[in-house]
Records
---
Amino acid sequence: MSTPSPIRLAAVLSTEHRGRLMALAREVNFREGSRIFDEGGRADSFWIVRSGTVTLQLPVPGRRAAPIESLGPGELVGWSWLFPPYTWQLSAEAMTLVRAYEFDAPTVRMQMDADPAYGSAIGHWVGRVLAMRLQQTRTRLLDLYAPRLATTR
């Protein structure tokens, strides 16, 4: 299975909108093994990876968290900040040293509300990321379960 390239800001946001968003960026680092966020926590930030690898995880009661996706340079980490009730749906951990741009979600949402064109552009970007990840998850599930389903018929 080939991994599609990340949906880059330059491909979906105009120079003006990209500049407005990046003006809010703050550079941060996460050490290897650092928790970036936990499922159920308040989603008040999001990140774009500059370097390193972040793993999205699904907590499983009584077991280790199940890895869902690995994200690398140029990829968006976190989408729950955009949708009420603004709580994380997954967890994230830095698998290597991660350098990222961090964004204050309430500030971005305020700007989105104040400028419908900007808000639409950011919403479409996050929506495209979600659609791509949903398709990747679908493909992984088919890879895992389709062979078993074919033998049970």
---
Amino acid sequence: MSYTYPIDEIHWSKEEIIDVVNFYSLVEQAYEQGVKRDDLLLAYTRFKQIVPSKSEEKTLCGQFEKESGYSCYRTVKQARSLSEGERLKM
């Protein structure tokens, strides 16, 4: 990994930064080795508590995709199409 995660160090608490980084990390894992659908959706739910604005989500996830090549949107969309307990591999 030779890129940085888009985070808001000014407005987010240390715990919120950790939770957002965890979400980005699970998106990466979905592409690289696969993740449990439920873990990803739980992390996304927490991400949305921290970033409730759709426009801010698009900005952050767009920056993440530009840096990493991994799409938060497509990953979450694919996870939602799976059944509970399934694994997601992008």
---
Amino acid sequence: MNLNATLFFQMIVFFVLAWFTMKFVWPPLTKAIDDRRQKIADGLAAAEKGKADLAQAQARISLMEASAKSDNHSRLAEAEKQAAALIEQARHEAEAEKARIIAQAQQDAAQEVQRLRDTLRGEVAVLAVKGAEQILQREVDSKAHAELLEQLKAQL
């Protein structure tokens, strides 16, 4: 065999093979590579969008937390004010009740003192009449006795 003819046929086979590869094999490979490249780019874009969404969500969460904390502080301050107002109102009511109870007790005591004075006057009058009776050694009639008692009560 001739070396030139072998080289010539090998070149023809090589060019046919290169043409076949470029015509039928290469386009599906480049399409698959391009599709894979597009999927990777889409995945990276989705990951970046996810990161941006996560950052936005964290910012919203931070704002919500700050708002909730300020709401909580304002509600706590309002509750403390209401508690202080209720305590002050209860204190005033207790003072008024205390004053009313003391006034009632003083009035009851004054009435009791007056009642005891009246009772004591009656007893003193009875004792005075008995003493006078014993001194006089005679019985005073009941009308005179009643009149004497009334006079004695009035004097005391």
